[in-house]
């Protein structure tokens, strides 16, 4: 058997990796056809996210893809630069880095070349387009949650949730009816919500999504059909009550072997943490890897009763938590090509408390990450051979387990004060996403060493102590190594990066668990006391839960300003130098599986085949053809 190819190429500091979905070929025809229609629905909304991310993204993408298909007038070196930039553009769904939020630009040598100058002349926004491609200091950040004194988070963010120079002050006293699924614009000096729904904003894409979801209905289980029908209704009305009905129906579908996430969901892109970015996933249950996660979910009440925070913020009536290991068939929008490895939804705190949640661990994504990572990555940042050996032996399993705890127990736990009305994000504002990710990570770090985790069959009991040490060491290393992603400036914008930085530096300040050591001019974060690490995590978790439960905005600001946002540029420069010498990637984007229907003479689908393109450019140009 030919060895599989995972790492396809590296573009600057981005790895491009193929993801595989082995279980698809074994599905019954009805499930394959269901996947096909959901797959089309997922790709039908792809342009929504491009437009949400930046108002010029779609036109920029059209120009770039046109040049690649017809590179007339470009030298080989110029074409190579267009190809490099375009691949980064695809990986980040626009001209802003997915993790740092900072802009990246096309090489200056392309300014004034015929394909681009012609495209700018033909566009009504030619001057802005030229700046979007070439000027690093124009609209620098897609999301800016810490713009500095006297500057506004909305006015300094280039995303397309707010149009016409809207500032945070403009929103004072304005009641949003469609907070999650609208764009705010100024018309005649008044704020107006452009609602994402049929007949509204993104009508073309939403109409196509509805059509594919409707085609999927006859092939869905009764529970999934109810969820899809509720989703269709929400897309038609845009009403928040219909979104709640969909969330509830989706949570209640606990048994379908095929499932989808589709809609306006995560709020990381919005500096306010209110507007939902569009995304879609289609996936199948990986039954072999699901057993341990299901056992973990069934014990949610046991863990809730032992959370190290004030008992008043523990849930006494833990609702059903459904947890599965899944194999992704396709991801789109906010979830691809750069993707999470675990998801817990819905985000609505009230629905979590009253109806429960569903957690999925993206097993084939985790596998592709692990198979594509070079061994030199661990060796460079581990303190000694023993740490390297632990990482090579246990890091994959430790990562899977903590991701499961993070999603199943972390996001699904706790309760908030009644006065917050189930919406702590409105009180904690731009700090909420980083706070919630910190909370879920802390839950995972706190419980990964619990004997209950071994009882659930997630780790071998005889090796649990070593696995915990490997995970704590990896977490500490990550706070150091992730600085390689931020090559400009001295602050962190991405919420997951903020939360990891905050946890490690809080532990450094309040415990003796982690030492900063130097050797041969290199910096290392070395875990020296596992018990102190665990106890410190428990104390920090209690405070983070208090902040969330009470809506203590000032404490959230202080936490991240002190520990999570700012870093020493000299340390970053050292890390970048070490990474560059080894040519290590900073982040990963995935090439998705491709589905193709097989039809008989009457047009009926008699099979759906899965294939693996193993080339980012081929896949992206195929996707572009769908958008024409």
> Are there runs of 5+ residues with pLDDT below 50, and where?
none
Strand percent estimate: 5-15%
Structure class: alpha+beta
Shape assignment: globular
Provide the helix percentage. Answer: 40-55%
Major β-sheet, in short? 5 strands, mixed
Question: Strand tally, please?
Answer: 15
Q: What is the count of DSSP helices, taking H or I runs of 4+ residues?
A: 24
Distance between the termini: 39 Å
**Adjacency order of strands in the biggest sheet:** 6-7-8-10-9
Computed CA radius of gyration, to the nearest angstrom: 24 Å
The pLDDT mean sits at: 95
What's this entry about, in short?
With 628 residues, the chain is an alpha+beta fold. 47% of the residues lie in helices and 15% in strands. Strands 6-7-8-10-9 form a five-stranded mixed beta sheet. Strands 1-2-13 form a three-stranded mixed beta sheet.
Explain the overall architecture:
Helices cover about 45% and strands about 15% of the residues. It has 24 helices and 15 strands. The strands form five sheets. The protein has a five-stranded mixed beta sheet. It has a three-stranded mixed beta sheet with strand order 1-2-13. It has a three-stranded mixed beta sheet with strand order 3-4-5, with no helix packed on it. The chain is globular and about 65 Å long. A hairpin with a 5-residue loop joins strand 14 (about 595-600) and strand 15 (about 605-610). The longest helix has 26 residues, at about 385-410. It is of the alpha+beta class and about 625 residues long. The protein has helices spanning about 30-45, 45-55, 55-70, 75-90, 115-120, 125-135, 205-215, 220-235, 240-250, 285-300, 300-305, 350-355, 365-370, 375-380, 385-410, 425-430, 430-445, 450-455, 465-480, 495-510, 530-550, 555-565, 570-580, 615-625, and strands spanning about 5-10, 15-20, 160-165, 180-185, 190-195, 260-265, 280-285, 320-335, 340-345, 355-360, 515-520, 520-525, 585-590, 595-600, 605-610.
């Amino acid at each position: 058997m030919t060895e599989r190819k995972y790492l396809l190429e590296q573009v600057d500091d981005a790895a491009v990796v193929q993801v595989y979905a082995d279980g698809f070929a074994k599905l019954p025809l009805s499930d394959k056809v269901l996947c096909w229609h959901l797959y089309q629905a997922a790709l039908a909304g792809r342009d929504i996210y491009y437009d949400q991310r930046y108002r010029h993204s779609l036109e920029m993408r059209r120009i770039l893809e046109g040049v690649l298909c017809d590179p007339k007038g470009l030298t080989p070196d110029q074409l190579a630069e267009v190809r490099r930039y375009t691949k980064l553009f695809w990986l980040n769904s626009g001209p802003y880095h997915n993790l740092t939020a900072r802009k990246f630009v096309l090489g200056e040598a392309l300014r004034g070349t015929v394909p681009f100058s012609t495209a700018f002349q033909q566009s009504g926004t030619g001057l802005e387009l030229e700046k979007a491609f070439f000027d690093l200091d124009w609209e620098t950040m897609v999301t800016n949650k810490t713009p500095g004194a006297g500057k506004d988070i909305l006015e300094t963010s280039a995303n397309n949730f707010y149009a016409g120079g809207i500032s945070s002050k403009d929103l004072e006293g304005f009641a949003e009816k469609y907070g999650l699924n609208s764009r705010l614009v100024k018309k005649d000096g008044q704020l107006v919500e452009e609602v994402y729904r049929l007949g509204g904003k993104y009508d073309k894409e939403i109409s196509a999504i509805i059509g594919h979801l409707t085609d999927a209905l006859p092939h869905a289980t009764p529970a999934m059909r109810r969820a899809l029908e509720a989703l269709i209704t929400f897309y038609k009305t845009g009403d928040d009550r219909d979104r709640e009905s969909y969330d509830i129906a989706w949570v209640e579908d606990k048994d379908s072997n095929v499932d989808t996430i589709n809609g306006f969901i995560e709020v990381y892109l919005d500096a306010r943490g209110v507007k939902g970015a569009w995304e879609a996933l289609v996936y199948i249950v990986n039954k072999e890897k699901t057993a341990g996660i299901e056992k973990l979910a069934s014990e949610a009440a046991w863990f809730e009763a032992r959370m190290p925070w004030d008992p008043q913020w523990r849930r006494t009536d833990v609702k059903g938590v459904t947890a599965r290991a899944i194999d992704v068939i396709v991801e789109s929008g906010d979830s691809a090509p750069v993707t999470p490895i675990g998801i817990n939804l819905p985000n609505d705190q009230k629905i979590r408390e009253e109806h429960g949640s569903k957690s999925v661990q993206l097993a084939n994504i985790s596998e592709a990450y692990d198979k594509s990572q070079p061994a030199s990555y661990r060796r460079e940042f581990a303190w000694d051979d023993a740490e390297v050996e632990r990482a090579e032996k246990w890091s994959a399993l430790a990562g899977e387990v903590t991701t499961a705890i993070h999603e199943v127990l972390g996001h699904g736990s706790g309760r908030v004060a009644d006065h917050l009305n189930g919406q702590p994000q409105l009180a904690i504002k731009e700090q909420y996403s980083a706070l919630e990710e910190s909370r879920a990570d802390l839950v995972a770090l706190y419980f990964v060493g619990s004997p209950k985790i071994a009882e659930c069959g997630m780790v071998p009991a005889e090796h649990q102590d070593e696995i915990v040490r490997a995970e704590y060491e990896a977490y500490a290393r990550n706070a150091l190594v992730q600085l390689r992603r931020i090559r400009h400036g001295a602050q962190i914008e991405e919420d997951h990066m903020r939360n990891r930085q905050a946890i490690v530096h809080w532990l450094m300040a309040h415990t003796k668990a982690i030492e900063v050591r130097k050797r041969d001019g290199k910096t290392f974060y070395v875990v020296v006391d596992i018990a102190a690490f665990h106890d410190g995590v428990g104390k920090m978790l209690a405070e983070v839960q208090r902040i969330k439960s009470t809506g203590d905005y000032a404490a959230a600001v202080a936490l991240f300003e002190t520990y999570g946002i700012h870093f020493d540029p000299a340390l970053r420069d050292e890390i970048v130098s070490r990474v560059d010498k080894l040519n290590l990637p900073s982040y990963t984007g995935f090439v998705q599986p491709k589905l193709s229907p097989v039809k008989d003479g009457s047009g009926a689908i008699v099979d759906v085949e899965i294939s693996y393109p193993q080339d980012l450019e081929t896949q992206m140009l195929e996707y572009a053809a769908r958008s024409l």
